[in-house]
Amino acid sequence: MLLQAQIILNKDEMDDHGHPLYLTILQWMVQQQMPNARVLEGISGIGQHRILRPGALFSFDEPPILILFEAEAEQVRYALREIRQFSPTALMLAYEVELF
Asked: For a surface tag, which of 11, 18, 75, 83 has the fewest beta carbons within 10 Å of its beta carbon?
């Protein structure tokens, strides 16, 4: 079974060493020889730590980042469990997909 995973975080989130968290995650995925991954930058978003104030046309918050990858189910589950250890607040989703 093929799963697709999404990891959603803020662009300004840093790892314990002060590096962008999304780059740390991507480097970890390269080291683990994940078959593919993409990092997409959103335009705007709201979430647990993102607040849009009434009447505000824009926010000074950094945009959201989406890391998207697909692999066999066990590989995705392993990756998400490991990534959760150094990214405890990221929203992570996984769901079954079919390639065409």
From this structure: 18
Beta strands in 1-100 (DSSP E): 2-10, 38-41, 64-72, 91-96
Q: How far apart are CA 25 and CA 88, in angstroms?
A: 12
| Beta carbons of 87 and 21 less than 8 angstroms apart | yes
Could you tell me the pTM of the whole model?
0.83
In a domain, residue 50? The reply is no
Q: How far is CA 44 from the centre of its chain?
A: 15
CATH of the domain at 18: 3.30.70.120
**pLDDT tens, 31-63?**
999 989 999 998 877 666 555 555 555 555 678
Is residue 72 domain-resident? Answer: yes
The residue segments making up the domain with residue 37 are 2-44+63-96
Q: Could you count the other beta carbons within 10 Å of the beta carbon of residue 29? A: 20
